[in-house]
Every structure is written in structure tokens, then in C-alpha cells.
Amino acid sequence: MPLNADVTFEKRLEALPLATYQAGETIFAPGTKTGLLLFLKRGTVAIVKGDIEITKVSEPGAVFGEMSALLDQEHTAEVRALEASQFYVADAAMVVRDPSSLLYIATALARRLDAANQTLSILKSQCQEDQPHDMVGKTIEAIEGLLSANCASFAYAKPAKMRFFVER
Q1: Beta carbons of 26 and 79 less than 8 angstroms apart
Q2: pTM for this structure?
Q3: Domain boundaries, given as residue ranges, for the chain
Q4: Among 27, 36, 41, 69, whose Cα sits 20 to 30 Å from the Cα of 85?
Q5: What is the CB neighbour count within 10 angstroms for residue 159?
Q6: Quick one: DSSP state of residue 42?
Q7: What is the rounded (10 degree) CA torsion for 57, 3, 74, 143?
Q8: Contact present, 114 and 83 (Cβ < 8 Å)
Q9: How far apart, in Å, are the Cα atoms of 29 and each of 21, 78, 107, 168?
């Protein structure tokens, strides 16, 4: 079932409270456990591990905090607002008991894993063909972004990064 077909889930999101973060504000900090799921309404955020920006996310509907909620663990990366960003805020314990929410999150995770697997295949091909190190490095960055990005959206499309690495 495509995510953009679930009007019921979108209506549930619209009923949730909103939180706004300004540019530079930390939304989730590594090592914290908030018990929240945030769904991007508008704005752009960065996923950061250590001093490395893994990816940027600006797709409405992108979900943040799902790994922490599903695995009952602390957040492993920083999510930082790059511009004023607004989120629907949900209690993770409540959402993970809702079948439509779980399907939404599971579909987002499956898409990320599928895209990461496809990019890993490209990486293996690049290594076998002895591609330049910068090309291989950029593909590794794409895999990191795909695995770290909390990219579920109502109108999911393959990440632009994928297209870049397929072209030679």
C-alpha cells in the first residue's frame, strides 16, 4: 500500500500537536530517550553523527525517532533544524500500537533498507571495477545517508543521491 494512499493516517497526523524548531536547534540529541515520534510537516533538518552531517531531510511526512521507539533505546544521532521546521508530535508508545502508524513506519524502513541495498550493490560494482576513490567514497556516504535518514514521506521518491551514483 503506497504511503500517499493512506488518507486516514494523514488525518491522524493533522490531529496531533505541533512543535516548531528554529534553525540551529537540536530536535533529538544522541544519548537521549524522548519517547516521541516526530513527523515533519515543513522545514529541513540534518541528521548528524559526531561532526559528520549524514543527510538532510525536507520531505513532508518524514518520521524521526522511530528507531529509538521501536528498539526502546536512546537516540543515536542528532537531528538538527537547518531552517524553521514544524513537526507533528506523537507519543511513541501510543503510535506503535496503532496498525496504520506501524505500517507507515515499517514501509519507510523497508524503503530505506531497499535503497541502501541497491546502493550497496552499486558500491560493490564500483570496487570490482576499480572506480576512483572519490566515487566510492560518495557511494559510501549515500549508504550512510540512506540508513540514517528518517525518510518516510507521503510522496516517497528515490533519493536524488541514488541517481547520482548510478550515472558513470
Answers
A1: yes
A2: 0.74
A3: 3-166
A4: 69
A5: 21
A6: E
A7: -50
A8: no
A9: 14, 5, 25, 37
CATH domain 3-166 topology: Jelly Rolls (2.60.120)
Torsion angle of the four alpha carbons 44, 49, 52, 53, in this order, in degrees rounded to the nearest 10? -10
State pLDDT tens for residues 33-75: 999 999 999 999 999 988 888 889 999 999 999 989 888 999 9
Question: Is residue 151 within 8 Å of residue 108, measured between CB atoms?
Answer: yes
Alpha carbon of 148 to those of 17, 98, 101, 132, 136: distances in Å? Answer: 25, 24, 20, 25, 18
In the structure, what pLDDT confidence band is assigned to residue 125 with cuts at 50, 70 and 90? confident
Q: What is the DSSP string of 113-155?
A: HHHHHHHHHHHHHHHHTT--HHHHHHHHHHHHHHHH-----TT
Is pLDDT of 119 > 80? no
Q: Which residue has the cell 571495477?
A: 129
